[in-house]
């Protein structure tokens, strides 16, 4: 996306860039993005436990969250193996990556760390992510790294189901009552500024493209836009401009303030009781 | 192997896949206990590596919380049957599909009150197509409707029957 103005969410100077980047290979960084997206969005779902508007939605939200946690475990499990084999680092497992890293070491998109808000915010965030995730995973099933291809194939089945559900909700809320339409539009307008990052290509993405792992970014962008446009049209919602001002930074560890609070809650127990083996 | 099964015929000379299958046939899925791990289609390979039994198991969903428990139960059942130190391997590819549910497994699900998957997952039944007709596992009526995409576990959706008015789980296609 050339039209997106780039600005770091955290406004860090380059001198303050965390050093972790220098010790990570592009492949590890790329896998952290995949794993952290699933982990952080999964945690947003976990925060809704006991708070969904209806029992059926409670079950759905928790199950989607579980799928995402499983995907995160598969991606981060591969990261931990690569860290041991390629960086000669001490073996750290997927749990360690999830529970012992600080915010600036996370590589998830800003979109997935946005707070839960109302149900329109929750389903809007899910839809904008799913519409991208499904096409990304589909591309990754053709990666020339067999491990990535098999995790992607497994995740794709689940993400396809997630997209069906989140699309239906965006349509139901958008094409619903005056109140639900207004809320869905407001959620969309607010979340839109975090979508630029989905289609942004940096040197890590470029390296993975050249390595035959990441799918073609133009195809991915086109497919995301087609899915978004189809659903928003049926939902009678107005689509914000693609060249609107966008926040970026999550992919290189510059996050919005919300991630720190999420991690504080998610990581409290393992950090407070580092020697515990049973929870 | 098998020599410490006092009073029982030797179970599992190396290469006796049928004997191993017979043991695994008795290991239930912890969340849907009427079907065994074999009927669920998650046992993907039985092999011997340097004389050590190796069983490959695939998870139904990435985040299925029963994955570790299932692997542990399989391990325990094999040890109890006389296989020393069996190796349980997790295999992701090819990804599990409901097409691998055996006929017996489907019938057991129905009898238990869970509607088995309708149609084949290979037809991309998750998107772009109308919902299949899911017959009520309790009264057999086709007048059913989906209440929620998800049921009590990730592998099920929630339906209700408009004739007998009962809610039921549908083991969805994947």
In short:
Chain A is mainly α. Chain A has helices at 26-46, 55-86, 94-99, 110-113, 119-140, 146-174, 178-191, 196-199, 203-210, 217-234, 257-272. Chain A contains eleven helices and no strands.
Describe the structure.
The complex is a heterodimer of chains A (279) and B (174). Chain A has 279 residues and is mostly helical. Chain A has one domain: Ferritin (Up-down Bundle), CATH 1.20.1260.10. Helix content of chain A is 62%, strand content 0%. Chain A contains eleven helices and no strands. Chain A has helices at residues 26-46, 55-86, 94-99, 110-113, 119-140, 146-174, 178-191, 196-199, 203-210, 217-234, 257-272. In chain A, helix 2 runs antiparallel to helix 6. In chain A, 47% of the residues are buried. Residues 1-22 of chain A have low confidence and may be disordered. With 174 residues, chain B is an alpha/beta fold. Chain B folds into two domains: 17-90, Fe-S cluster assembly (FSCA) (GMP Synthetase, Chain A, domain 3, 2-Layer Sandwich), CATH 3.30.300; 114-171, no CATH class. Chain B has helices at 17-24, 67-80, 103-112, and strands spanning 43-49, 52-57, 87-90, 114-115, 144-148, 156-161, 167-171. In chain B, the strands form two sheets. Chain B has a four-stranded mixed β-sheet with strand order 4-7-6-5. A three-stranded mixed β-sheet of chain B has the order 1-2-3, covered by helices on one side. In chain B, a hairpin with a 7-residue loop joins strand 5 (144-148) and strand 6. Chains A and B meet through helix 2 and helix 6 of A and loops of B.
């Amino acid at each position: 996306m050339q039209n997106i103005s780039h600005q770091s969410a955290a406004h860090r100077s380059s001198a303050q860039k965390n050093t972790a980047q220098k010790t990570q290979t592009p492949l590890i960084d790329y896998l952290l993005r995949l794993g952290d997206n699933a982990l952080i969005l999964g945690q947003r779902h976990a925060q809704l436990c006991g708070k969904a508007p209806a029992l059926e939605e409670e079950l759905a939200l928790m199950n989607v969250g579980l799928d995402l946690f499983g995907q995160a475990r598969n991606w981060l499990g591969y990261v931990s193996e690569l860290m041991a084999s390629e960086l000669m680092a001490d073996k750290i497992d997927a749990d360690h990556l999830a529970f012992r890293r600080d915010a600036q070491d996370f590589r998830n998109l800003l979109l997935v760390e946005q707070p839960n808000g109302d149900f329109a915010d929750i389903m809007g965030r899910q839809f904008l992510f799913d519409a991208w995730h499904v096409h990304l995973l589909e591309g990754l099933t053709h990666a020339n790294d067999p491990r990535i291809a098999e995790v992607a194939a497994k995740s794709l089945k689940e993400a396809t189901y997630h997209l069906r559900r989140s699309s239906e909700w965006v349509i139901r809320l958008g094409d619903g009552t005056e109140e639900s339409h207004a809320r869905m539009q407001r959620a969309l307008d607010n979340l839109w500024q975090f979508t630029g990052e989905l289609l942004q290509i940096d040197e890590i993405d470029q390296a993975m493209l050249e390595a035959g792992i990441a799918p073609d970014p133009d195809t991915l962008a086109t497919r995301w836009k087609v899915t978004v446009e189809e659903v928003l049209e049926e939902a009678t919602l107005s689509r914000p401009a693609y060249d609107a001002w966008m926040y970026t930074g999550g992919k290189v560890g510059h996050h919005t303030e919300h991630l720190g609070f999420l991690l504080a809650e998610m990581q409290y127990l393992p950090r407070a009781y580092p020697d515990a083996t049973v929870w | 192997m098998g020599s410490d099964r006092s009073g029982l015929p030797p179970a599992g000379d190396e290469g006796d896949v049928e004997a191993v299958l017979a043991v695994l046939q008795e290991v239930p899925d912890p969340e849907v206990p009427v079907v065994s791990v074999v009927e669920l289609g998650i046992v993907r390979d039985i092999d011997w590596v340097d004389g050590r039994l190796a069983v490959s198991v695939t998870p139904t969903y990435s985040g299925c919380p029963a994955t570790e428990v299932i692997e542990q139960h399989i391990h325990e059942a094999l040890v109890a049957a006389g296989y020393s130190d069996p190796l349980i391997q997790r295999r992701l590819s090819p990804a599990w599909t409901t097409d691998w549910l055996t006929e017996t497994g489907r019938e057991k699900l129905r009898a238990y009150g869970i509607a088995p998957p309708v149609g084949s997952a290979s037809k991309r039944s998750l998107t772009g197509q109308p919902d299949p007709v899911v017959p009520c596992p309790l009264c057999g009526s086709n007048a059913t409707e989906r209440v929620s995409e998800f049921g009590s576990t990730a592998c099920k959706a929630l339906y209700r029957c408009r004739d007998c008015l009962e809610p039921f789980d549908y083991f969805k296609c994947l």
